[in-house]
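Re: the multi-chain job from yesterday

Posting the exact lines I submitted so nobody has to dig through the queue logs.
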Amino acid sequence: MPEFPEVATLINWLNHQNFFDAKIKKIIFVDDIVLKNSTKKSFINFVCGETIKKISQIGKFIIFHLSNNKIIEIHLRLEGKIFYLLNNEKSKFPMIEIYLDNGKKIVYDDSRKFGTINIYNNYQDLLNSTEIKKLGKQPFDKTLTANYLFNCFKNKTQKIKTTLLDQTIIAGIGNIYADETLFLCKISPFRQTNKVSLKECQLIIDNCREIMSKSIRNKGTTVFSYQYALNHSGSFQKYLKVYGRKNLPCLRCGSILYWTKINGRGTTYCKKCQK
DNA sequence: CAGTTCGCCTGGGGGC
DNA sequence: TGCCCCCAGGCGAACT
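And the result, structure tokens for all chains:
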């Protein structure tokens, strides 16, 4: 599932494609369920005739900046993908195909239909939107500090695993990087959030950044069907220490890794190493 | 109000 | 080989 490093990889890839002067010509919908604040008709009216200027990231959100300051905001959720294809190429589960006047198309592909797409008249409207406004710090934001985290954590009694997935605190951590970060920090996913020390807050930030940087260098983690482009997958799964390794020996102490559900999320951890 | 559970959705993997 | 069941999970809504 795309988390911060996978979204960053995708955006980096897209920004290296050459569609920035091409005009959007027509849109074909297979399914419009991902459109949240527009209809097929208003979406078509909004984007047709525009060009894409650049693509940026906020947490797990992908931001398409169009001509005339228009914005398309995409969240891939679990299985969403964005492909840049020749007109005669086909992805597996296309939902929206955006045809450009250069013989190619941008395809939003999503087998589970969980993704979301919103449109905004300008960047400020995007920043004022409920889903963006409530986001916390991004992983590499300089203002993400131990003190900030400690302050967010101090009144929380829920398990730290749940808190790390809370996008209003750190925007971009998902299930894989939450488990990996806690393992590196030697913190049990069951630990009550307000029992995490200031020192451990710094550890969480450092380890989270380290894993995410390494993941981005490896073009993300491929589990299930993640691809950042058609037939291009990441390879960070090779370096995962706990996620997907249930019942395998801990790479630090050798004891068997446990798997459980915390707030409905699969969680793999080492009972011995993580306190 | 904080914390937890539910439901959205469907391909694919496991069991038989 | 085919069929059934159920799991995967981000996040908003509903619930406790």
